[in-house]
## 1
Amino acid sequence: MLYDAVVRNIEVVSEAARHIPVNLTAHFPDIPWRAIADMGNILRHGYDNIRDDIIWRTVEDDLPALKNAVAEMIEKLEADSAQRMRLLDRIPVSFFSDRRSA
């Protein structure tokens, strides 16, 4: 059950990342934005080819960097609350709930 929840949340994060405007993602070229989007598609449509080691590596290595990048985006958008809220609306609460009330 935990595994299914992790996979589902990676799907949600992937979909949310697709909706972050390019003018924001461009500031973070080290984040593999296309690969994030692609992973969500693989999890949704290629579920028979999911590798546990890749899921674990994503959780351990990739999600922290993505979370830091999104936190930095939010900090930069603090002055523009409307744009900040549009960004926050695209991020799953379970991924970033500690920043939503900031």
## 2
Amino acid sequence: MVTEGELDAVAANQLFDGKSPVVSLKNGGPSAGKDFKAALAKREDSNGAGGKPRTADQRVRDNLNDCLKVIDNVEDPKQLVQGAEIKALLKKAIALLTSK
């Protein structure tokens, strides 16, 4: 699923219980083509010639860090309920992955 906003992506991910991949367009709908091309090029560079595929733990850790970035960049605090608690849980989860 592709959404226009980061918070929309988080909400969609929760709606589908993480069972469906969800991405957010960096600059909204008008830049969709450019964003897709850049993301595809980045993916091919990181997993292409000589690139090392990420493990499941690395992918989960990266996703958790992305969630932290979304929370940190919320412009209107009213949009985020229990932000501090969510951040604390995310950091605990990252620490668990790191300690393996």
## 3
Amino acid sequence: MMEEKRQDLLDGSALSEIIDSVDEELAEKLTKLRNRLVVVIEELAHVSHLNSNLIQDSLKITNFNLQLLTNDHGQGTYDKSGSDDSQPGRSIINHKA
């Protein structure tokens, strides 16, 4: 019964339309709730943006570490005399796995 009343009231309407159609006391409560919801959504968007940046940084670090471990960074190593001491194809892990 209550669910039917709720659906009849909402019926795809925007919250501002609902606020305009109810009594003043309920409109005030709904306005406060809407304002709080806007704040929470803005905070969530900010946190989501930060998480995205953290994920990108983590991927960069992971790729860097994989390059180090697989010797796939394009730079050789040198011995004390300055001669190239790199061994092609030698890596700690198989990055194709």
